[in-house]
Design brief:
single chain; 133 residues; alpha/beta; seven-stranded mixed β-sheet; 5 helices; 7 strands; globular
Amino acid sequence: MVVEVKNIIDLSKIIECIKNKNKNIILLCGTLGSGKTTLVKEFVKSLGIDEEVTSPTFAIQNVYANKVYHYDLYNKGIDDFLGLGMLEELSRDGYHFIEWGEDLEEVLSSFGFDFLKISILLEGEKRIFECLD
């Protein structure tokens, strides 16, 4: 599924795609400022969770209402992710969003994890979201 997003409201199409795919691990792939954290914020809101969503760039993981797990590999990378036991975290019930997750695809596949990959491309003021599973 490919969706052109021009504003926050358009993200609802991607959120529905995530919910309909019935996969709880979502790899978010895109450049800085492409909208990865914004997508997680809107997803959390769609579940009725009223918590502030921030990028876990330095913490590596944020958890919202024990339903949404948000990871960021930008600063820490795969080695820290694995070394901190985050693979075990992926077995918890809930949705697991992993920013900069493209480098984790091979590892997840080798451990038998099923995941949804969302690629985000910037084109001027709009963003193109592509859901791949």
